[in-house]
Specification:
Shape: globular
Distance between the termini: 67 Å
Number of strands: 4
Radius of gyration: 28 Å
Strand content: under 5%
Oligomer: single chain
Number of helices: 32
Length: 789
């Protein structure tokens, strides 16, 4: 053995901290702007690039991937080097990772306001940027695992487990959800459609929250919180249970975002079940963090860093209680599509991620510059300002969401709606939108105060060069507790887990009595394995988990297996969609070329942000919107447009409900048709023109995705677009409105008139005026479909 001095690469840590603070400011500014737009529609400024529906994806991407992402990388790079007692394997890879990630963020900031989007929540970036994300993530993974391979500390600390799970799972999620066929450099279509696409998207969407916003921050908690408290982690054994149960269970819970939709009931129930089970490991992690402060609670009063960490972990506990609560079907029936979900999401993002980030910055920056924090009083002020801001935000959204849910479902004794006009709800909750704006503004103010404090801390200081003296073992000196590959493969915990999973599956496929007998046998074997393992530990033999902790490859493979089990099971409907999603009515007919063009305008303008296309099987929704949506009605929707929030009403049955003139008026001046609407006007659509030749290419690409367009339809696509557009323009002209037949506005109207129907605007020899379309359901009135973005 020999001792040598290593110097840590903290320059990359400082870069990621600066980037996180910079983009965090941008993300919060955009968030405050769009919050103001919900309260005061004039804040859209009449520009296509500043509408709520285009800026909201920018806000979410900036907060998740720019603010929290850069903070996560800073924490990972700093802690990994100390936990492995090794410098990052490659300074070049670290730099490529940093600059590549910032380039991706800038690309997102440019493309999203321009309307270049896939329309898939938290995955809106188009295919060239998706490829860049994959490449940069691989660079990060190679650098991380290379560092583990050359580590001087053989034991993998708990924080590293969570980093490994993050790197592996995010890669799997991103690759699968990004499968698409490109049309141009700025447009692609998901290879999945309808129910398949919805399931894949929310498998990704839920687990992006789990493995990008949760597991890496838990790793940061396990490193920085004990450091700040100067106490060891409360329970190593609890951290093992926390990690493996969280990694295995989280991946199953995605379908709880799709309760009461056209998703098969078994998939919805599976998602709800695993969401409820997540309560246990999530709260186990929270308690492990808070109990780490045993004997050090007096420091919380004095140290702002600990205030942020304690509050952050507490918000984590609140969010992981509320998430399973919202996954219960009866609760979801009230809360889904409402502002309650928005409050829940921001409790996690601002409370858990935001406060943990602030605590880490306040602890990290002074140490990297060899000084003390410039002002603890300012940090304390930041803490209280941010906490009050979060509370105002969450409480206002809880009140707003419950109010929305109750008003939407309120019916009279005769079954009619108490509030038939959707805008009645918007007017009722407007004060809560003002409070939401104030809460977000307070949080931003606290963030700006933190920036001043950090800049003052760094002023006039030079970064310190941190390092450590490490004992480097020669290749011939084996780790006595490393075990062998055979020990890993034959370890009782691994086989016990396999048998236990088989026993759980048996409850589905085996009669009840044999399944119960098998489950009891598994418990007996597990108890015996635990006793034997304790005896082995008493003799000094390393435990199975102790062995894999020293084998990063084996550990990573087991994490991958744990993730893939749930992922494959959850995505079975995408593999066997015919069996999993039986048809209960007539299937969807393919869109015409003009309707497909209008659909792309719909996604470009972000209409999916505030409008759903999924009528749930509830009496009040039938009264308001019409027949419940069926799975087979979306088989040609690449991508799906079910939405996750109703700032405006559902649109799946809007086709034929209103004449073309109503849609034209609503898009040009929403308040002319829907008093109280906070929707921006889309006057620029009248001046925009569709690319007719590109419409043909879209149909050709759709045939490659399985949409059954005939050779004749492809050959006449240009003519058909012109004729259908002229049918809409002619109808409008008959009522005194002049608009070009090839305008984006006409294409969007054609798409809206098609929703929920086999045939939209007729043209050619079958041309009829859609103003003579079927009347809406008795309970509906024109204003009930207006309002909201």
């Amino acid at each position: 053995m020999q001792t040598q001095r290593i110097e840590y690469d903290d320059a990359i840590v400082r870069k990621f901290v600066f980037a996180s603070v910079l983009f965090g400011t941008v993300g919060l500014l955009v968030g405050v702007l769009i919050a103001s737009q919900l309260a005061w529609w004039q804040m859209h400024f009449g520009l296509p690039y500043t509408t709520f529906s285009r800026l909201r994806p920018l806000h979410t991407n900036a907060v998740i991937f720019a603010f929290v992402g850069n903070m996560m990388f800073a924490g990972v790079y700093y802690s990994t080097q100390r936990l492995t007692r090794a410098r990052m394997a490659s300074e070049l890879l670290s730099k490529i990772h940093f600059w590549g990630w910032q380039a991706i963020i800038v690309a997102a900031a440019v493309t999203l306001p321009l309307g270049i989007t896939t329309s898939k929540e938290y995955a809106e970036l188009e295919w060239p940027i998706d490829l860049a994300i994959a490449a940069v993530w691989v660079v990060f993974a190679v650098n991380f695992f290379w560092t583990l391979a050359k580590r001087n500390e053989k034991h993998l600390y708990v924080a590293l487990w969570f980093y490994i799970a993050t790197i592996i799972t995010v890669a799997v999620l991103h690759i699968v959800n990004s499968f698409a066929l490109p049309l141009t450099a700025f447009k692609s279509y998901s290879v999945f459609s309808g129910v398949q696409d919805a399931l894949v998207q929310w498998w990704y969407g839920h687990n992006a929250v789990a493995f990008f916003l949760t597991t890496p921050i838990l790793g940061i908690m396990y490193y920085f919180m004990p450091k700040a408290a100067e106490r060891p982690v409360y329970s190593y054994r609890l951290s093992i249970v926390h990690f493996w149960s969280l990694v295995f269970m989280y991946i199953w819970a995605g379908p709880h975002h799709l309760l009461y939709t056209a998703l098969p009931d078994w998939a919805q129930s599976l998602g709800m079940l695993f969401s409820l089970m997540l309560w246990a490991p999530s709260w186990g992690g929270m308690l492990n963090g808070l109990l780490t402060l045993r004997g050090a609670w007096s420091k919380v009063r004095e140290e702002p860093v600990l205030k942020f960490f304690v509050a952050g972990v507490t918000f984590y506990g609140m969010s992981t209680f509320e998430g399973p609560l919202l996954s219960i079907k009866s609760v979801s029936a009230l809360a889904h599509y409402t502002d309650w979900i928005v409050g829940h999401a921001h409790g996690g993002a601002l409370g858990w991620n935001g406060l943990m980030a602030a605590g880490m910055f306040y602890w990290l920056v002074p140490r990297m510059y060899g000084t003390q924090l410039a002002s603890k009083k300012a940090a304390d002020a930041h803490f209280w300002i941010a906490t009050i801001g979060i509370v105002l935000y969450m409480v206002s959204m809880w009140i707003s969401g419950v109010n929305q849910g109750l008003m939407w479902r309120a019916t009279n004794p005769d079954g009619t709606l108490v509030y038939p006009s959707f805008t009645e709800t918007l007017l009722a909750i407007r004060p809560m939108y003002v409070v939401r704006f104030l809460g977000g503004t307070l949080y931003l103010a606290g963030f700006v105060l933190m920036i001043w404090n950090l800049l003052k801390t760094m002023a006039g200081k030079r970064p310190v060069v941190a390092g450590a003296d490490v004992v480097v073992a020669s290749a011939a000196e084996a780790d006595p507790e490393a075990g062998t590959l055979g020990d890993v493969i034959t370890g009782r915990p691994l086989w016990f887990s396999v048998v236990a999973f088989g026993a759980a599956a048996a409850f589905v496929f085996v009669p009840l009595v044999p399944a119960v007998i098998l489950a009891v046998a598994v418990l007996v074997v597990g108890e015996a394995a635990w006793v034997i393992t304790r005896r082995e530990r008493a003799t000094g033999k390393p435990s199975w988990f102790g062995i894999i902790e020293r084998r990063p490859l084996a550990f990573t493979v087991l994490v991958l297996v744990a993730v893939l089990i749930g992922g494959v099971a959850e995505l079975l409907p995408t593999l066997f969609v015919k069996q999993a999603v039986p048809e209960t009515g007539s299937a969807q007919k393919p869109y015409t070329a003009l309707e497909l063009q209008g659909r792309d305008v719909y996604t470009r303008e972000g209409c999916y942000v505030c409008h759903s296309q999924m009528v749930r099987p509830m009496i009040e929704e039938h009264q308001r919107y019409g027949e419940a949506s069926r799975a087979e009605e979306f088989i040609y929707d690449h991508p799906f447009q079910w939405g996750s929030k109703r700032t405006g009403p559902d649109l799946h049955r809007v086709g034929g409900r209103y004449p073309n003139l109503w849609h034209y008026t609503h898009l040009m001046d929403p308040r002319a048709t829907s008093v109280g609407s906070n929707m921006p006007a889309y006057a620029w659509l009248a001046d925009g023109r569709i690319d007719v030749e590109l419409g043909v290419k879209k149909l050709e690409l759709m045939t490659r995705l399985g949409v059954p367009y005939t050779a004749e339809q492809l050959a006449t696509a240009v003519t058909d677009q012109r004729l259908q557009g002229e049918a809409v323009a002619k109808d409008l002209a008959s009522q005194g409105v002049t608009v070009a037949a090839d305008s984006e506005l006409v294409a969007l109207i054609a798409y809206l008139q098609r929703l929920g129907r086999d045939v939209g605007v007729k043209y050619g020899i079958d041309e009829v005026k859609t103003s003579a379309a079927p009347a809406p359901p008795p309970a509906a009135e024109p204003s009930s479909t207006g309002g909201g973005i």
